[in-house]
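Quick entry between incubations.
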Amino acid sequence: MSRRPFAAKIVTANCLRSGEAVWLTADDRWSPDMADAELIEDEAVADDRLLFALAQGDRVVGAYLADARPGRDGPEPVHFREAFRTRGPSNHVHGKQERRV
Amino acid sequence: MYTYTDFDESVVRARVAQFRGQVARRLDGSLTEDEFKPLRLMNGLYLQLHAYMLRVAVPYGTLSARQMRALAAIARRWDKGYGHFTTRQNIQFNWPRLEDVPDMLDALADVGMHAIQTSGNTIRNVTADPFAGAAADEIADPRPVAELLRQWSTDHPEFQFLPRKFKIAITGSPHDRAVTRAHDIGLRMVRRDGAAGFEVLVGGGLGRTPMLGRVLRDVLPEADLLPYVEAIVGVYNLLGRRDNKYKARIKIAVHEHGIAEISRLVEERFAALRSAWGGADRAHLARIAAQFAPPPWRNGPTLAHDAALADPAYRAWAETNLSPHRRADHAIVTVSLKAPGATPGDATADQMDALADIADAWSHGELRITPRQNVVLPHVHKGDLSAVHAALTAAGLAADNAGLVSDIVACPGMDYCALATARSIPVAQEIATRFAALRLEHEIGPLEIKISGCINACAHHHVGHIGILGLDRAGTESYQITLGGDATETATLGARTGPGFAADEIVPAVERIVRAYLALRQGPDETFLAAYRRLGPAPFKAALYEEAQSDAA
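Done. Structure below.
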């Protein structure tokens, strides 16, 4: 039985106070910008980082691992749901995209 | 309209104070998220994709102008200047910060509103006919009973941990505008031998396993309503499955045990409960009913309406957005929140204020929220309609499309919701914009499109004439179509047409269905649903799939 190769991951969650989507950085911060996230290429490291994130319950809610790939400025989302989390809704310029305009 | 008693007020204030303490303890680290989550859900607070979301109950869809202004003020102060009205007659605020929510709840309590039991495995906001107390076809106003049910179910100690959520809908009209057959309990007023009673439906629900409610009692005397409903929920509380979330609703219990067995258990429990109630609810209902007395009707000439019909814009609006009132010189006005290209169900704070002002001036200060995500001015004298239309036009609220193809019901979908598998709002916006550009809407006539962004079916897509379900197919958004659904007293679940459509294919697909209908109908009087029932799915499937193939070839 061959195992599927491990797909690169990031750790993401929502900020406890604002509910905004945040990503775990290599230096243990939570950034509102996915490009700052630590891209994790190793499954054991991913599990370890997720455990770290789950212990940060006083700052974030609902931490999980999501697929990501390297991009020009940093990690980028693979799935459309994760892409929406980096922007905000499509019907109003609200959320993260609001600060970019 | 109902006003809180001192007891209502103290219950709601106490709950806000409790939640304020819970939020403080969550923020200072004394409560974990696992401990806090059930507490916030009991108060309608969700965490979604981009932010928290507060769901506020609009009891049986009735709002006073004062309450609508309070919602506008909350939207401005603690949200982003708008709110989203839902198919369960609630309003959702999409951007609150956790620490602000107790203040929002206090602001709601100031006007007799709350967010209690708008989430969780409890009895949710009781929904009702949005035309209640106004409709020409109504037997009696169902809202006193709905308010009684609200009071009875709020913090009911036996029903705080049901197997799953529990939804009740009630109507006093033979024409069902409350989707009663898609609720855990549906109550439909009937008159038998001069006395009002209820047909009691049980086990309806959409979602993953859509089912229509079954008749549990043909005619339940009104006096027995509360003990009987308590018997149903009590039986469900014991019988409902707690081993599998997807099989926990009462519809599954009805399906697995059969309606006869459910009926036997309910009648047995009812027999035990009925005497225990001792009639206290009857006296209380009489006090509630007094608060729903009709407003002092205005008398006067209706000439302004007849004169305004010469204006084509007014005439088009009057043809689609007015419904018969119990008084011949009044009308029920549906205010469409579906201007083509707008987000279905969204209203800005300015629009909410405008609606409140219009209601105060011309509708006895009353407003309703509909299960189709629109707003209703229930009591407008016909002589005032042209003034109402002018005021709605000024507020951007005069879309003349109630019940037409662009009056689309859509859940928030993956633009907001953490459970969604695809977006629904942009699909609704594109379909509405497309048909507005074609200028065919009024020719097409009544046609209900409902779009859900996941199988939980918040937009009731199974009972849309055209239902659309957004799914994630191998990492892309894909849309499945159902046809022939019906949300009314002739409720029907739509049938799936076949393979789904990609996001850029769904609008042309819907257009092919509608064009097939226009080509096949016997005349303008044969509605889409009537044509579908006469012809069956075959010609529509052919239009959907065979034309798509020939286009691609």
